[in-house]
Specification:
The protein is mainly beta. 0% of the residues lie in helices and 80% in strands. The protein contains no helices and 6 strands. The protein is elongated and about 60 Å long.
Amino acid sequence: SYFGNGTIAYHFHNVILPVRDFDVQSDLFLLTGAGIFNTYGNIEPALTIGGGAKIYIRRYIVLRIDVRNFIFQSRTPPEFKRELSPNMMIMIGFSFFLPNRVSPFFVKAQ
């Protein structure tokens, strides 16, 4: 189990990605933070590093991709020796926004 929400994020807003004949708007971010892991009844401090992107597919549909690595020292049975345990997590999801005004997320490449 992982507990913690001490995350610091840095956002790069409105990054334009060239894709074929269109420039696609996206938001990129980096993050780091701290928390604790509970393994085999042992509570260990943990570090979180990662990043991701929100890619605007249509005006009101966004694809979000996060990659995070939870790093902690674990004591695994039967010897319970301490070893560094990186745990990679990849999350992919969609967001749907209710329209409140028309704004172009796709710009024709020049």
